[in-house]
């Protein structure tokens, strides 16, 4: 009798748990911007934009793995898709970064912030080595996914300077870059301490594709599908507010997309690569393992389509970030 009662109680608790899961998930995903160390933003009035960086993704590597299913039977294999952006010029990227900066500055002013000229801050960071404009960096954009991005600093903020935490480096990274990033943050903190002016660092990661991944240890197969998607990538897109102490940070938690067709997708696998892929697939299956898959695509920007749409995505982010910064005061 007691055993049956316990079983019924466990079933009720399980059903209640399932019912609460969607509500809990909705609560977690409700806020499109996550704020850390919000107290550091309290009382902010005067701000200087230290750096406005547009990180343009130019190459993605999306992966999915399968473990072979609950009954075993070997490994389920791995699926990889490599995608590359084509047809966007450095001049267009620079135009997007500059326009996004102007829009952000205007929206900060509209929210009641006093925007301080960048010149005084520039003197603090001038002794430090600047990053190369359009420098290619490998960044982490997902659990198993990496991407290459061109770092484009807005003309208005001068030489490109990357601060610690501006982007998630893949692997160990360049220690020289990390050390300079730490020193840059330290210089900005010293400026804030000396002047009472907070420093805003912006990194917007502009994406060109989105992936749909299927796999997991309990799956017998894996797959990755990619489609064109112009907009800002979540998690990697962030705004940092630097004061004398630990900075406050605003991180985009949901993608900001722009509807429409902006790219022509094409298969980039050569004939030789396809032949090798077919042979490898057969050998893998005969050997009792899962089937590994590698695909390559190019996404070529349609003439004249990219800049305006990218600026629109950045402007949408600017609105949310400026409003959230104002709410933290």
Write structural notes for this entry.
This protein is of the alpha+beta class. It has a domain at 50-59 and 87-262 and 303-323. The chain is built from six helices and 13 strands. Strands 1, 2, 3, 4, 5, 6, 7, 8, 9, 10, 11, 12 and 13 form a 13-stranded mixed sheet that branches. The model is unreliable at 1-28 (pLDDT under 50).
In short:
Keywords: Signal. This protein is of the alpha+beta class and about 325 residues long.
Identify low-pLDDT runs: 1-28
Distance between the termini: 60 Å
Number of helices: 6
Rg result? 23 Å
- What number is the mean pLDDT? 84
Please name the defining characteristics of this protein.
329 residues; alpha+beta
Please specify the SSE layout and strand pairing.
Layout: H1 2-29, E1 33-36, E2 46-66, E3 77-86, H2 90-110, E4 114-115, H3 119-125, E5 135-140, E6 146-153, H4 175-195, E7 198-214, E8 223-232, E9 238-242, E10 248-252, E11 256-257, E12 263-267, H5 271-286, E13 293-301, H6 306-327
Parallel strand pairs: 2-4, 2-7, 3-13
Antiparallel strand pairs: 1-10, 2-3, 2-6, 5-6, 7-8, 7-9, 8-11, 9-10, 12-13
Helix pairs in contact: 2-6, 3-4
């Amino acid at each position: 009798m007691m055993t049956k009662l316990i079983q019924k109680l466990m079933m009720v608790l399980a059903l209640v748990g399932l019912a609460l899961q969607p509500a809990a998930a909705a609560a977690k995903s409700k806020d499109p911007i996550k704020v850390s160390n919000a107290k550091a933003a309290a009382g902010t009035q005067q701000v200087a934009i230290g750096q406005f960086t547009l990180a343009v993704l130019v190459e993605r590597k999306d992966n999915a793995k399968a473990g072979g299913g609950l009954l075993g039977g070997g490994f389920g294999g791995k699926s990889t898709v490599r995608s590359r952006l084509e047809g966007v010029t450095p001049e267009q990227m620079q135009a997007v970064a500059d326009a996004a900066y102007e829009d952000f500055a205007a929206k900060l002013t509209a929210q009641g912030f006093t925007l301080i000229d960048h010149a005084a801050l520039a003197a603090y960071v001038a002794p430090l080595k600047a990053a190369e404009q359009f420098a290619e960096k490998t960044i982490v954009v997902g659990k198993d996914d990496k991407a290459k991005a061109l770092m484009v600093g807005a003309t208005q903020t001068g030489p490109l300077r990357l601060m610690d935490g501006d982007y998630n480096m893949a692997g160990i990274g360049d220690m020289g870059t990390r050390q300079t990033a730490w020193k840059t943050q330290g210089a900005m903190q010293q400026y804030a301490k000396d002047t009472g002016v907070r420093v805003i660092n912006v990194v917007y990661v502009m994406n060109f594709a989105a992936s749909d991944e299927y796999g997991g240890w309990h799956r017998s197969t894996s797959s990755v599908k990619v489609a064109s998607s112009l907009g800002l990538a979540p998690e990697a897109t962030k705004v940092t507010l630097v004061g004398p102490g630990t900075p406050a940070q605003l991180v985009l938690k949901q993608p900001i997309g722009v509807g429409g067709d902006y790219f022509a997708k094409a298969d980039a696998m050569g004939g030789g690569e396809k032949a090798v892929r077919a042979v490898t697939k057969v050998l893998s299956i005969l050997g009792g393992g899962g089937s590994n898959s590698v695909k390559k695509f190019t996404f070529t920007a349609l003439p004249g389509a990219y800049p305006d749409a990218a600026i629109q995505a950045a402007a949408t982010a600017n609105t949310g970030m400026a409003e959230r910064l104002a709410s933290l005061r």
